[in-house]
Inverse folding.
């Protein structure tokens, strides 16, 4: 009896480092989410306001880099002590203004938007990326994806025309190498339109990967790519 108890305690001690290792795994992958400004601004549910720096370029803008779990759930607001610090992005501020603009009203300089993204999502990836690295990673990923160029090369342009949902997915998969998640919203006429594109990224925030799970937002089989 004493021998069995000793073996139990020994095995328990062996398992403790393994359990600690599992608990230290903060997330499994990132969703890198980009939104089309034409769809953000052309919807019956909301209005848009251009940033104080002026009208953004007609390109996909970053929405966020979101840590996720493979079961579809995600962590959020992981470190209330890690507040957004503008000085951390001073070297990439101009790139942030160009590639990560805020279109919410009232018009802003983007700081509120970036603060929200860091504090809700970025703090959950601090085991991998500090604040400076987090924002820099998102900007690098946007350039690496170059979504608008990928779609244009496939003959899919932001011209208010309708395209099959499958053709949009296939174009991105061919251009980037992985199947994206597509999110749609509706314009004032009720047309389903291309709104956001989800790509999956490894925990280092540097490489696109096959999505362990894709979001399943509702899109029509044919969607509009609105002008901006």
């Amino acid at each position: 009896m004493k021998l069995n108890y000793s073996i139990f305690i020994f095995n328990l001690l062996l398992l403790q480092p393994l359990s600690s290792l599992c608990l230290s795994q903060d997330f499994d992958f990132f969703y890198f989410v980009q939104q089309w400004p034409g769809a953000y601004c052309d919807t019956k549910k909301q209005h848009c306001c251009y940033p104080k720096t002026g009208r953004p370029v007609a390109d996909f803008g970053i929405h966020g880099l979101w840590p996720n779990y493979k079961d579809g759930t995600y962590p959020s607001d992981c470190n209330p002590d890690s507040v957004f610090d503008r000085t951390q992005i001073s070297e990439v501020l101009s790139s942030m203004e160009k590639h990560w603009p805020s279109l919410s009203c009232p018009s802003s300089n983007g700081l509120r938007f970036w603060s929200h993204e860091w504090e809700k999502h970025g703090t959950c990836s601090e085991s991998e990326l500090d604040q400076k690295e987090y924002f820099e990673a998102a900007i690098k990923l946007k350039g690496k994806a170059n979504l608008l160029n990928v779609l244009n090369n496939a003959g899919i342009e932001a011209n208010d025309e309708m395209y099959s949902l499958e053709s949009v997915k296939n174009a991105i998969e061919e251009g980037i190498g992985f199947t994206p998640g597509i999110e749609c919203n509706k314009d004032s006429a009720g047309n389903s339109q291309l709104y956001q594109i989800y790509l999956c990224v490894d925990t280092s925030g540097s490489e696109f990967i096959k999505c362990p799970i894709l979001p399943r937002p509702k899109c029509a089989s044919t969607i509009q790519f609105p002008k901006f």
Remarks:
- The radius of gyration is 21 Å.
